[in-house]
Amino acid sequence: MTTLIAFLFALGVLVFVHELGHYLVARWCGVKILRFSIGFGKPLLTWKVGRDQTEWSLSPIPLGGYVRMLDEEEGTPIDPPEVHRAFNRLSLPKRAAVVVAGPAANFLLAIVLYAVLGMSGLQEPAPVLATPAAGTAAATAGVQEGDRVLAIDGQPVQSFGDLRLKMIDAIVERQPIVLQVANGGAEREVRIATDGLPAGELERDFTRTLGVELKAGVVQVGFLEENSPAAKAGLQVGDQILTLDGQPVARAQQLIQQVQAADDSKPLQLGVRRGTEMLTLAVKPQLTYEPDAQDASAPPHRKGRIGAGLAQQFEMVTVDLGPLQALAYGANKTWEMSAFSLRMLGKMVMGSLSWKNLSGPVAIADYAGQSAAIGWFAYVGFMALISVSLGVLNLLPVPVLDGGRLVYYALEALKGSPFSERFRQVTQQVGLVMVVGLMIVALFNDLSRLLG
User: Fold this and answer.
1) How far is 442 from 450, CA to CA, in rounded Å?
2) What is the pLDDT of residues 161-202, one digit of tens each?
3) Is pLDDT at 452 greater than 60 in this prediction?
4) Is 329 inside any structural domain?
5) What's the whole-model pTM score?
6) Which pLDDT belongs to residue 322?
7) In Gene Ontology terms, what is a biological process of this protein (predicted)?
8) Residues 171 and 152 in one domain
């Protein structure tokens, strides 16, 4: 339910802002608005507002919206006194302004959302690297424990997420990733080869495959189950687990695997830091038995558990900006994400990037639910990213999209007169086939991920 609510709210806001851009500029240009609709299909709710009695409606199919304007080209009879308020009577620049206002509104929303994050003390993992696994490209390149990434291919890096995003171009092009790193007061350059990555690795965990991983911080107890072995042993929320049976614990996943492999013949000795106090706690795992997911006739798998939720703590960087700095940050972030989206789409068209990377409504809904569960920071970031994507998508030169209409207007300016109705109908049908095709591919990818 959380996923559905988060998805519908985000989509509703983004569609409303997009259509509001068209609406406001059209009103400013003197065009009469007949209907403002969020969603498609038979309206569930309608009301009329203003001198023009504009009909505002909410419809059941939430994958878009529209603003219907007075327009002679729609074939509906128009009262002579109102002809001057028809959209088609606007000058070419004004028509273009109305069309571009929708995507522009999405970009402005993204700028504001990113600015809000910038002013709110956004925390992200610092770009500090762990010792790479032997045999990985990062190990071969000489990446060391504690290397702090300052730049990639000459572009400054703020966080590990920023680093991961900026690695993608080089991976797609099969070019070396050039990192400027600092460690122990000295700076150096490392070049990580990407030509050995397996095909399709971009769709998986490419940073781990390359050996570029976050330096682990402490393992901390996030929560405890009531009457669990961990609670009975005296473990408390906030405790930092440093060792297991005398061996250092570097990552939460490592500790989880060791606990699951343990039996109940003897307690595990956990070395714990609690504030300034160092403790050793004896925890006897509780054994559980789980059926084999692949073979129902196979013996059940035995796993140890202690009933503690573990969290990996990493070094964090904080983005905390003033209002003007935050707006500049939001504008720069929106520009970066727009350019990145266009580059990736171009690589899909050229065949250098798999169409499997295209996501549809199912994946977007899943991301909405996940980000909402993490917290408002993640959810606002998700909305900003989708707003950028919606703006970029609508500016593509496809006839049924805003970008396609701008192409019509550009050609009309060169030709000196509008194109025939027949030409527009044919090209819009082609554009509709293209958009539906993209939606089918995206939905197929979503279902493949869901079922695979």
Assistant:
1) 12
2) 888 888 888 887 888 999 999 998 899 999 999 888 776 666
3) no
4) yes
5) 0.73
6) 85
7) proteolysis
8) yes
